[in-house]
Amino acid sequence: MDQLINLAGGFGDVFTWQNMIWVVVGAFLGTAVGVMPGLGSAMAVALLLPMTFTLDPLASLIMFSGIYFGGLFGDSTAGILMNTPGNSTAIATTFEGHRMALAGRAPQALATSAIGAFTGGMLATVLVVFFAPTLAELATKFGPGEYFALALFAFVAISTIVSESAARGLAALGFGLALALVGIDQSTGSARYTFEVPALFDGISIVVITVAMLAIGEVLHVASRLGRSNAAELVPSQGRPWLTRPEFFEALPAWLRGSAFGIPFGIIPAGGAEVPTFLAYGTERRLDRRRAKPTFGTGSIRGVAAPEAAGNATAGSAMGALLALGLPTSATAALLLATFQQYGMQPGPLLFERNGEIVWALLASLFIAMIALLILNLPFAPLWAKLLKIPQAYLYAGITVFASLGVYATSASTVDLAIMCALGLLGFVMRRNDVPLAPILIAVILGPLAEYSLRDAMANSNNDPLTLVSSPITIGLYTLLVLGVVWAFWRRTRESRAQDF
Q1: Does the CA dihedral 418-195-425-343 come out positive or negative?
Q2: SS3 labels along 233-259
Q3: In this entry, which stretches build a coiled coil (predicted)?
């Protein structure tokens, strides 16, 4: 009951004309950036992150709620109409979605995607409202050892379990931790890796790192391929942008099953929604084989509904893990954590006590953002498709200018621009060599937490390393971590053997 009262207060804070405008603007911009080929939801958050720093904390976080879910829908739009998903989380949706588009059912595929995103996100957010405060109360029992275990769990899980190559994932993690060490050590007051450059005493801004690695790196990667690859053909989207009654009831079980897959994965550091979307897609495919007339391979509406609901359910429950534990379970969630920290707020057990009004207003804005996105996307999805016709040369030139202005505006530092260019070049090299970017972002965000937690744990126990595994929580986290690594190794070994045959 307390959750409903607090949520009602959050709706009261959000229901002003200024905040409602920011929700709609966030949903609009998130979808617009996410729908463009090669950008995606993480890029939408990275590009628009500097712009929100001019707003007050509540307006900024409310706007981000729209960007957060809007970018996810944009990912699927590009995949359905061009067979080029904006992000890896939309790959599973693309399989049957693009086949539906080729069969002249693009509007129905987009409608299925929009309603699935709404269903998955709404169910996950409802659970967050009721269970995030309880999870935060449990997290108050966390000490330095538990927080170190939690950070280590996120590091290893995202670097080895999610990444295709454990070596590449760990290399990216190491580089991210190196970036996190730059600046003044808060414990000793000594400068680390600053090379006597005053601009580096405060460390490297998360805005510079994210914009450089995600935006500038992608721009250079696309520029290296311009003129050498044929542009994907845009399938026209014409017809009724809604589902008939039989289509709706055919998709409904898939939406619910997809949501059931996605919600648990938002709580664990699995790097995003890739795993639950493919699990949801694979389940629907196996169920389809039992039908008298299988539809997979020809454009199955359930092949779009399940992974889309799973992806947005993962994003919704990831917000709960972020708010209650301070744990970003994906690259996009890591960027949202940076937004909180920019305003001096630290997500975690005490956030609901210290900044409860903002937290409940943010949760209320998630519901409003999903309704706004449903209104924007159902009838106007064909209009979003027009953005796919923008020539890539103009599009990415504009992104470069916008990213540079955003980085400079946050600190008015030319050193930040130089760092952005250097890290952008590194991001390009990483893309060319299939090195994942998510471990870098997670390491930059959670690196300081891991360092200070380790120091505190050692100081409080007279440097006894056993204190790191002295509680049921730490033992449970390390056990899950070992099982996850073993499972990932077994899965890759089986896949490599299957390819040999």
Answers
A1: negative
A2: CCCCCCCCCCCCHHHHHHHHHHHHHHH
A3: none
Q: What sign has the CA pseudo-torsion 316, 322, 324, 327?
A: positive
With 0-12 CB in 10 A as exposed, 13-18 as middle and 19+ as buried, what is 23? buried
- Share of the chain residues as helix, strand and coil, in percent rounded to the nearest 5: 75, 0, 20
Question: How many Cβ atoms are within 10 Å of 415's Cβ, its own excluded?
Answer: 14
Which token pair is 103? Answer: 């069969």
CB neighbours of residue 292 within 10 Å = 4
Question: In angstroms, rounded to a whole number, what is the distance separating the alpha carbons of residues 446 and 444?
Answer: 6
Look at residues 88, 49, 86, 92 and name the one whose alpha carbon lies nearest to residue 67: 49
Tokens of 313: 């359910």
Per residue in 390-411, pLDDT tens? 777 777 787 788 778 777 776 7
At 393, the amino acid letter reads A
Tokens of 149: 């275990």
Helices and strands in the chain, H and E counts = 20, 2
Q: Which has the closest alpha carbon to 400: 430, 428, 374, 376?
A: 428
pTM of the model: 0.75
What angle, 0 to 180 degrees and rounded to 10, lies between the N-to-C axes of helices 91-102 and 57-82?
Answer: 50
Q: Which SS3 state, helix, strand or coil, does residue 184 take?
A: strand
Q: Using alpha carbons, select from 485, 492, 496, 493 the residue that is nearest to residue 161.
A: 485
Contact 340, 165 (CB under 8 A): no
- Is residue 60 classed as helix, strand or coil in its secondary structure? helix
Residue ranges in the chain whose pLDDT is less than 70? 1, 37-43, 49, 51-53, 84-88, 139-140, 161-164, 226-241, 268-273, 330-331, 381-382, 384-389, 410, 495-501
